[in-house]
Amino acid sequence: MNVLAIVPATLWREGRETAVLASIDDKPLLGHLLDRLSRVSKLEGIVVTTSDDPRDAPIRDYCDARKTICQRGPCDDLLGRLIAVLKAAGATGGVMVDAGNPLIDLELVDKVVNLLQMTDGMLDWIGNTLSPTYPRGMEIDGFTTAALEESEKRCMEPEQRRQGPAFLRQNSRLYRPLSLTAPPGLDRLDMKLNVEGPEDVPRIAAILRRFKDQPDYGLGDLFHFLETEPPV
């Protein structure tokens, strides 16, 4: 199974600025995430998906500048955009990591990719967003293209299409999901490692600078840093 990483990115969500293009050391947060995902060797590739809203044009411009594929479509149809990305790439599976998660754990991404490849279609969805135990900012959804395409036939409500792969994990009678839980010691739902808006950027910037020379840092490394040298 060839697995594609898909990064949904938008500058505005529910009326709030997302700050995904906020610059940290001359690189936007989106760029930090894309560079991080590029370290997962088993990925077929990485694609950004954004809306066709004119306000998201800077995301498309940035992707063009760094030669990263950026697919666009209706802002309220994440499901349709995901399927279009997978089909265009000829990928049989995908992992979705939101642009607001620049610190995503590489071992977690690698685990989901490996499970998709090992099960080779025996599971429809693999991820940690069904019964969250990981810190915020570690969310990942893995799915097969076949299951996502099948779910599109059932997702008639606008909200279902906005939620992308959520229908797969929410309907275990129709699909075969596998929910991942955080290992002991890393099950910290109280810890916030994502970017929801500009107010989160300084803290994430401090973390990224701390690990600038240690690009393969993991969730355990993040915990140790935050507990011993918490950013102001």
C-alpha Rg, in Å? 17 Å
> What is the CATH topology classification name?
Spore Coat Polysaccharide Biosynthesis Protein SpsA, Chain A
Structural class: alpha/beta
Assembly level: single chain
Strand order of the largest sheet: 7-6-1-8-10-9-11
Helical content stands at 25-40%
Number of strands: 11
The CATH architecture is Alpha-Beta Complex
Gross morphology is globular
Beta-strand portion reads 15-25%
Number of domains: 1
The unreliable regions are none
How are helices and strands ordered from N to C?
EEEEEHEHEHEHEEHHHEHH
The CATH class assignment is Alpha Beta
Average pLDDT value? Answer: 96
Quick synopsis:
With about 230 residues, the chain is α/β, with parallel strands linked by helices.
Question: Could you please describe the fold and organization of this structure?
Answer:
This protein is α/β, with parallel strands linked by helices and 232 residues long. The chain has one domain (3-228): Spore Coat Polysaccharide Biosynthesis Protein SpsA, Chain A. It is 35% helix and 18% strand. It is built from 9 helices and 11 strands. The chain has helices at residues 29-37, 57-65, 78-89, 106-119, 145-152, 158-162, 166-170, 201-210, 219-228, and strands at 3-8, 12-13, 16-17, 23-24, 27-28, 43-51, 70-73, 93-96, 125-127, 141-144, 177-179. It has a 7-stranded mixed beta sheet with strand order 7-6-1-8-10-9-11, sandwiched between helices. A two-stranded antiparallel sheet has the order 2-3. It has a two-stranded antiparallel sheet with strand order 4-5. A hairpin with a 2-residue loop joins strand 4 (23-24) and strand 5. Helix 3 (78-89) packs across helix 5.
